[in-house]
Specification:
The chain is an alpha/beta fold and 740 residues long. Helix content is 30%, strand content 18%. Bound molecules: 1-deoxynojirimycin (NOJ).
């Protein structure tokens, strides 16, 4: 995208040039530079800014909503009287005519005709719903996520949306936190790659392309560290972890060109994210040169008062603007107080103008001044085309993770299926949280998908509700189980147990669902357990009862077809976990990239181990079975001694030992055993997914850049690469590299 004009905008000579252009333009009568699509972007911005009154500027920095608020967690009164001068609206409508009517007021009935920017939470699809982001991360196929984001952008754009509040790249290590569903798991590199691909998918080659929309990296920053998984709570984050874990995906997203950033709700070790000059201005805008704008999260400016950082709303507006928040989402603190704050000299005109410039720049870059309106296209042309649905099916299939498959019970060899469980015919929860304008009626349920295949004879019984008894439910389920060859049991969570405000104190399945499982196990029939959830689950007391477990997450519109693809063996499962499944809830936090413990040599003697449970998680990051076996060869390194800055080729051969073509993802980790800041046991640096034919072998290569891949951040944000020993790992092999 074209916002990255470091040399141009940062250069004083150019600012002088724009000032001259604007001055000449104003001397030449009526010529309005900002209306000239052929004029230079910065000249347009400066020209428009120079014409604006204080009130007009302040309106540009506020956002309200249009249509019925679809997010129950977006609390607060609705503002009925939307001024035509408003900078942005969260548009909850899919009706372009509504947008166009609002836009017409802004463009034709205001003094300067500045178009409104319409935003929406397009998180994993607009109407065609793709799997939740956490599931997409498990596909380890970022190319598919980019394509899914392009589809979401097209559907959104044709519904009047210019701007999506995603990707969410908050690294998440606590599955009690409901928002783990919205991000890309526990690894900063994985979140960086997926987040960047979402941005590329949305923003296309240029922001003013027909189907491009602007991205918004959120929630900046460290929101994933909410204590105890309680949403909106404070976080305690060291600078080491801030730099090496939480900031990394944001930095990658800025490098990928994200047009905007959203400041988070959380307090970061004493300074709320929406009043944090260090993260918002020093890091984001000064170090990383982000030239787009920062929007607050919903009411996160006013919430500075509740957090104890601001004495009142006016003070909150002062703190937020001075810290670097450019646009106020919904709480109108900016509208109410920026003029007074300017008069009181609590904020500067320079900073106010900087914020306005940033907003205007995006409006020009998106081409809103030239094309403010949305064309009217029928629903059948804009939504759920065959192409979109096929893609949604592919993403869903690749996202599913096979956790257990005793005696190769999958793919299914049986014909007669007892299909049981509250998720089996569910069309709402299976879409997941933040399912935008997805409709239950569009969803292919698991039952519908299996039936449509014509491969099976299916008898269905719900067994229980998600969290409640169903009269005769268990008995009925047991009855049909006895009459069939195999039980396909579909358990899981409500969509609203994940996402915003979806915190849980335990990640175990509801009691009634476990009772159903145990009841069915008594029949002695094999059980294939399908789990649909927006988070990793506690499975230690579930796993022993199931012969096979497939984590399907919340797969979206094409859930049923994707499940059938895997169960039937049409496609081999290829997902791997992007987030660790703890052994039990008490083990949280548990994640693969933890720093080393102090008594590793004595671990086998019980040192540093739980007295009551295993230390190891149930299923770690990167875990996932296939219908075939892959044999990894030894890692080959082009040079075992290198200098900082060198690039090395590292490769490994992987052979498909089974009878079925299947995809495998090779995960490349590094480990730095001795460092002046202790580092994680291992760190993911690259991954690649490829199809390997049955009996065939493929060479996977990692081009290691010793500077990029071996370095680490010190507490002050300085990146360093230390000479010494490193290990490179793939599969079960590891190889030593000496860096001089
Ligand atoms: C609050 C959520 O935290 C954020 O992710 C979302 O974009 C806004 N509400 C707008 O819906």
């Amino acid at each position: 995208m074209s916002l990255n004009r470091k040399n141009m905008y940062g250069n004083r000579a150019c600012c002088f040039y724009f000032a001259v252009v604007v001055l000449l333009a104003s001397c030449s009568g009526n010529y309005e530079v900002y209306k000239d699509s052929g004029a230079n972007l910065e000249a347009r911005v400066e020209d428009l800014l120079a014409r604006m009154t204080l009130e007009e500027k302040v309106w540009q920095l506020n956002q309200l909503i249009l249509g019925d608020n679809l997010n129950v967690n977006n609390i607060g009164e609705e503002i009925m009287d939307i001024p035509a001068e408003i900078g942005s609206l969260i548009s909850f409508t899919t009706d372009p005519e509504m947008r166009n009517a609002m836009q017409k007021r802004a463009v034709e009935e205001t003094r300067l005709g500045i178009p409104i920017l319409f935003g929406m939470d397009v998180i994993h699809g607009f109407r065609t719903i793709f799997p939740i982001p956490l599931a997409q991360a498990c596909s380890f196929n970022p190319e598919l996520t980019m394509q899914a984001s392009q589809v979401a952008a097209k559907e959104a754009k044709l519904s009047g949306i210019d701007w999506s509040f995603s990707p969410m790249v908050d690294v998440a290590r606590d599955p009690r936190w409901g928002r783990v569903a919205e991000g890309y798991g526990e690894d900063p590199y994985l979140a960086s790659v997926f987040g960047s691909n979402v941005i590329k998918g949305y923003q296309g080659k240029a922001l003013n392309d027909t189907f491009s929309i602007a991205a918004c990296l959120k929630h900046y920053v460290a929101y994933g560290a909410s204590e105890g998984g309680r949403d909106y709570h404070a976080t305690e984050v060291s600078r080491n972890t801030l730099w090496n874990v939480y900031l990394r995906p944001f930095h990658a997203g800025i490098q990928a060109g994200s047009a905007t950033v959203m400041s988070a709700f959380n307090d970061i070790s004493g300074v709320p994210a929406s009043a944090n000059h260090y993260t918002l201005t020093e890091i984001l805008k000064q170090d990383w040169k982000h030239e787009g704008f920062v929007v607050s999260d919903w009411n996160s400016i006013e919430q500075l008062v509740f957090q104890g950082a601001a004495a009142n709303r006016k003070h909150a507006a002062e703190l937020a603007l001075n810290a670097g928040v450019d646009m106020d989402m919904k709480d109108l603190c900016y509208k109410d107080y920026l003029p007074e704050l300017l008069e009181d000299r609590k904020i500067s005109e320079e900073r106010l103008d900087d914020a306005v410039r940033r907003v205007l720049r995006l409006k020009f870059t998106l081409g809103l001044f030239e094309h403010p309106y949305t064309p009217i296209v029928s629903d059948s042309l804009r939504y759920l085309t065959d192409e979109y649905r096929n893609l949604a099916r592919e993403v869903a299939t690749e996202s599913m993770v096979l956790l257990k498959n005793d005696n190769d019970i999958l793919p299914l060899k049986f014909k007669k299926i007892a299909l049981v469980g509250p998720m089996a015919d569910d069309s709402v929860n299976i879409m997941g949280s933040w399912s935008c304008h997805g409709k239950a009626t569009d969803v292919v349920t698991i039952k519908a998908g299996l039936e449509a295949s014509g491969l099976y004879e299916i008898e269905y019984s719900k067994g229980c509700e998600i969290d409640a008894v169903l009269p005769n439910g268990l008995a009925d389920a047991r009855r049909i189980a006895g009459q069939n060859d195999v039980i396909v049991l579909c358990l899981g969570e409500y969509a609203w147990w994940s996402g915003e405000n979806g915190s849980k104190s335990t990640i175990s399945l509801p009691k009634i669902q476990k009772e159903l499982l145990k009841e069915l196990a008594q029949t002695g029939k094999p059980i294939v357990l399908l789990l649909s959830s927006g988070r990793p689950l506690e499975l230690y007391d579930v796993e022993p009862y199931a012969n096979s477990i497939l984590q399907i997450w919340q797969p979206g519109t094409m859930a049923g077809y994707a499940v059938c693809d895997i169960l039937s063996g049409n496609i081999s499962p290829s997902g791997k976990l992007a987030m660790t499944f703890p052994y039990n809830t008490g083990q949280i936090p548990v994640y693969y990239n933890a720093r080393r413990q102090a008594r590793i040599p004595y671990q086998s003697q019980g040192q540093g181990r739980y007295k009551d449970i295993q230390n190891e998680p149930m299923y770690p990051f990167g875990y996932g079975l296939s219908y075939t076996d892959f044999k990894y060869g030894n890692i080959i390194l082009s040079d075992s001694i290198a200098e900082i800055g060198d690039r090395l080729k590292i490769s490994v051969n992987i052979r498909n030992m089974g009878n079925m073509d299947a995809e495998e993802t090779c995960l490349w980790y590094i480990s730095d055993p001795v460092s002046y800041i202790t580092r994680p046991v291992k760190e993911l640096k690259y991954f690649e997914k490829r199809m390997i034919g049955s009996g065939e072998e493929e060479t996977f290569t990692f081009e290691l850049d010793t500077y990029r891949d071996l370095g680490y951040y010190a507490d002050d944000g300085n990146y360093f690469v230390e000479p010494g020993q490193y290990y490179i790992m793939a599969g079960t092999d590891s190889i030593k590299l000496i860096l001089k």
